[in-house]
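Chain A, query sequence.
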Amino acid sequence: MITKDKERNLLRITDEITYEGDGVKSDFREKMLLNNHIEGLLQLRISVIDHEKVYEYNTEGLGTLEALTERENVPGGRLNMILKKIAETVLKGERYMLDETDFILDPRYIYINKNDHPVIAYYPGYRHSFSEQITALSEYLMNRVDYHDRESVLTIYTIYMKSREEGFGVKELIAFLEGDTERERKNQKNISPADNHRQGSDKIIYVNRPGKEPVISPRALFDDRPAAVFSKEEKRTDKDKVTGSSKLSICIIAAAGFFVIVTALAVKFKLLLGKDQKPDMIRIACLLLIGAVGGLYIFKYLYGKDKKNKKKTVMPVVEEATELLYDVNSIARSEEYSLVSDSDPEIRITHFPFFIGKDEKNNDFCLNITGVSRRHLKLEKVSGEIYISDMSSTNGSFLNGERLEPDKPVPILKGDEIVMGRCRYRFETLNG
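Chain A, predicted structure.
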């Protein structure tokens, strides 16, 4: 069980004691942690209290990643650095024979020091898959990322997708983060001032949607080909305008040339003269009609063909991008949850963490009912599991009849009963 002692600045994990002979069994990894100072890991002290082994990690002067992301939007470069430092700490553990599945990568227990570097806990026997923890961590961060920061969006979304691939590990994460930094450095070096507005658009397609968050195409994220920036009112560049004007002029000249050639041939072969060898107005009118119709046909054929080709090469890209566009936040919404009541309004939970309380401005759902505090309840998702915690509410929260300890997350399952004030809810999964 993981708890926080805020008064003593400790992160505490309690475990059952395993005896070996006449004493308590000790893991070789515990000795590695106690006898070595490993940069990036919380300092550890192990003791036996009331027949339980207690792991105490010193967190003095440190704030959690959860607190940091709730307080501010973390920029892409800073986020990249934090994730890279975490991965390097895990990789460094190999030298001390520390298993990568025993590092705790929960945002509630990832701490940030004064140098803005992450410091994490290692608990022998934790046994949580590294890739699954990174998936859960990136899923959490997607609900915190500033969607106007293209670097953050791209980094977190790509990590989320890669962490779900078979064979993903700490080395693959470091390789991606180092490659991402190198690509960013090259882009900054090579990009011209005129192209500043397009920076980052080679992987993210944005569409003008007034009043809505930016959206991206998942196809573009893993496609090596550049993807253009499109909008419904896209303006052509000056080069495009010059090219278009030139082609229009060529089409007009071609049409006029046809008319001149037809006239010259008619004059040469005296097709405009009547039997008395004088100009015949009917023949001249027919010539003008033939020249005009023929010239118009040539103009329409050449200019229309050019526009048709443009549609074939450009429009499908726009349409494809539009069809695939969706809010990045929906990535973390593979499941939707709900609190259902027989007498009170249903509460749909579509993202995490999710806050419930009487204060409309500071909660995801306003439950303005007697007995509910301004910020009453919190639901969060960690490593695929849903946890509920009471936010030190006045009247408390109850799970299946038992009162929750303030600020202590407890896992909940489908069908569990939750009581807040006079409200009684049942936890349900909407998509089964």
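The first helix runs from residue 28 to 35. The mean pLDDT is 75.
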